[in-house]
Amino acid sequence: MEQDFREWLIQRGNAGAANSYPRAIHLISEHYSKETHRRINIYAIESQLTISEIAHEYSQSGKYAQYGYEQHGRFRAAIGRYSEFFVQHKNADLKIDDETTIPTTESTAESDLQITNSFAYEKDLQTSLCAQIAELFPDYIIFGNGLLGVEYSIGGKRVDVLLESKDGDKLLAVELKSGIADYKVFGQISMYIGLLSEQFPNKIVSGVIVAGGIDAGLKQACSITDRVTLKTYRMSIELDDA
User: Counting CB atoms within 10 angstroms of each CB, which of 110, 154, 173, 176 has the fewest?
Assistant: First the structure.
């Protein structure tokens, strides 16, 4: 896993980080083991939730924030990047049952580029969100074994991320939009809630739309129910050593 992490960093264009961050993960393992009195090797962890929780502990609001910011924030950045890598690495092995179709009628190069960019941004948003589940949705975990809840397939559709409460009583369907979400997304998330409620009749199912912006029509649509909530995300910039 360490070598895969190094190669992933190189592919991202972070040659300096590829030399620094893999070693930092070992140091974080040693520090976390000492603090928790348990022998921990982060590279041996198979649970995304556990990695997300450890990353949160070294974030700005975490228990080990002071250590995380040592060496100009090297440790915080390293575990954050590793959490993102873990999601992408595991997600690469997931089987997708249905296909994404792109309209082909009189498609221009510009519109194709916009569709491709939108898809790429949403995949990045999905990766980032899954890497920070412990911080963003502290009462939930990704549904199923490992990352089964990522691109969860139901009724020939795909839920971007399906979360399950830690007590197992509730499901939360997460719909991601990189740009501004309009009223049409309400129908989409409502469909997911209906499908999930049918498949899991003993669980309380709700949904959340996470988008770059929310338009007035979507706010009005969601005002009729408490089963759909709206969230906007903020982008942050972090600098890696070159």
Answer: 110
Q: CA Rg, the chain, in Å?
A: 19
Angle at 114 between CA 176 and CA 154, to 5 degrees: 35
Pairing mode of beta strands 170-181, 204-214: parallel
DSSP 203: S
- Could you give the CA distance from residue 131 to residue 238 in angstroms, rounded to a whole number? 15
Average pLDDT score over the chain: 81
User: Token pair of 211, please?
Assistant: 């988008």
Phi-psi region of 155 (alpha: psi -120 to 50; beta: other; left: phi over 0): left
How far is it, in rounded angstroms, from Cα 182 to Cα 174? 15
- Residue 186 to residue 181: CA distance in whole angstroms: 9
Tell how far CA 167 is from the center of its chain: 21
Number of Cβ within a 10 Å radius of residue 161: 25
Asked if residue 142 lies in contact with residue 49, where contact means CB atoms within 8 angstroms, the answer is yes
Instruction: For residue 47, count CB atoms less than 10 angstroms from its CB and return exposed for 0-12, middle for 13-18, buried for 19 or more.
Output: middle
Residues ≥6 apart with Cβ < 8 Å to 184: none
- Across-strand partners of 228? 207
The pLDDT tens digits of the residues spanning 41-63 come to 999 988 877 888 888 888 877 88
Quick check: 81 and 9 in contact, CB under 8 A? Answer: yes
Mean of pLDDT values over 140-164: 87
pLDDT tens, position by position, 155-187: 989 999 999 998 999 999 999 988 889 999 999
Q: Is the pLDDT of residue 191 over 70?
A: yes
